[in-house]
Amino acid sequence: MNNVAFIFPGQGSQYVGMGKYFYENFVESRKIFEKSNEILEFSLSDKIFNGSMDEISDTKITQPAILTTSIAILEALKSLVNINPSCTAGLSLGEYSALVCSGALDFEKAIILVNKRADFMVNSLDGNLYGMTAVIGLSKEKILEVIDDVKSYGHLEIANYNCPSQIVVSGEVVALDMADKMFKDKGALRSVRLPIKAPFHTSFLKEAAMKFKTELENTEFNSEFKVPVISNVTSEKMDMSKICELLSNQIMSSVLWEDSILRIIGMGIDTFVEIGPGKSLSSFVKKIDKKVTVLNIEDESSLNRSLKVLSEV
Asked: φ, ψ for residue 247 (rounded to 5)?
């Protein structure tokens, strides 16, 4: 199967009970959850399946939880069908799931890295209130005008270029509150505050990025990519010689998701499978190119639907 890409979601896709079907029905998935519990030295699976939404939305829980859930689902899929993607990518945190999928990084090392990443990202912030807003239906130019107009209230930056109709803005809450009103005045269809209380993918996280780079440099990656990974930072294939720089910069750089998907489509790929909680990435891909086939796998029903389509590809 040479025209399939696997894509993996990032923070904000979490929900209580994600991945439980796979934990209960696939030994391959259960082993992934149990490995995370062992490495983190607490029951991450219990928090995912039985915790509150507030609890699993804590960055230090969310990041290893989404990685674990995504790889648990991937392992279940691999046990059911012989499918080798031609390419993979992940949005923000999801890039670590993509690296595991590609063979460039072992899952055990990925959990340790993501745990450190979350810790650095949270602890590098001061006492200010931060947030992220998805702006729907407004051009980059008009969004930048608003960011400039509210700079006396606080600093904002573009964090994600998700698809033609959605750009995410990240920064200080006071400025975001003002900007939300102005986005609508400029013609935005709507602006949606995301369940993330941090200024991800902005210069606010420069300190975290620098600290994390040291962790990356001390991590042993595998010698090659078995599957190409498209970088959030460059929207090009990752180069193993630059992987530490790319992953550290990703923390404080805009995510070029739309460009990444266009790059994958340009490689001749016409089927995308989102693996992990939620289906936001599926929505983005459909808005980028309506002609491609888009699937998601997060529970029993979506698994069965996807298997049926993949069997016909």
From this structure: -75, -35
